[in-house]
Amino acid sequence: MVIFIALVYKEFNIEFYLVLLLALIFTFSFSLAIGQKFVSPIKKLIRRGEELSKGSLKTRIYLETKDEFEELAMVFNQIAEELERSHSMVEKAKDAVSIKVRARTKELEENIERLERKVKDRARELQRMIDEFEKFQKVGRRREIEIIELKKALQEAKAKDEKLKGKLKKSKNEKEVKNKKRGKKQKR
């Protein structure tokens, strides 16, 4: 059943309008107060969320509203704690990796330095061997030239020896011929 109230505007007096105005002011004030009760925790959550997003991991929010906003603040704080814990673990892992990388880098640098020394030593040794080889090559060339000169001298000496032998033979033959002629002359 619905009841309709018919109001006659002409019968309202000033007191009715004052009561109506006071009711409107009260309703507006009550709505504003209730709105502030809801908006204030939301604004706090937004401010803390912005701080957290900028990297302030120590940010926490504490609300004692005994409603869903307080629960939301507790969840926000748990998320912030997890982020802080994760960030701490990442930093520790980064430090550990950095230490390992530095140690490995130092080890590699030492290996590189040791290998460079070995290469330099080998290069010096090879250069020394090349120098000795070139020295032996020069000595070998000189020896070859000396051998060639000695062979020529030997051939010349053999040729002279042959000439001398030939002359000696000829001279012997001539002496024999002379001796024979003398011998024949003496026999006669």
Give a structural overview.
The structure is a single chain. This protein is an all-alpha fold and 188 residues long. It has one domain. It is 85% helix and 0% strand. Helix 1 (14-53) packs parallel to helix 2 (68-187). The chain is rod-shaped and about 210 Å long. The model has no long low-confidence stretch (mean pLDDT 85).
Mean pLDDT rating: 85
**Which structural class do you get from the secondary structure elements?**
mainly alpha
Question: Roughly how many Å is the radius of gyration?
Answer: 63 Å
Give the strand content. Answer: under 5%
Intertermini distance: 203 Å
Quickly count the domains: 1
Q: How would you sum up the global shape?
A: rod-shaped
Put simply, the count of helices is 2
Largest sheet: none
Instruction: Give the SSE string.
Output: HH
The beta-strand count equals 0
Q: Which regions have little confidence, pLDDT < 50, spanning 5+ residues?
A: none
Residues in helices, as a percent range: over 70%
What is the secondary structure topology, with strand pairs?
Elements: H1 14-53, H2 68-187
Concise summary:
With 188 residues, the chain is an all-alpha fold.
For this entry, give a set of tags.
single chain, mainly alpha, 188 residues
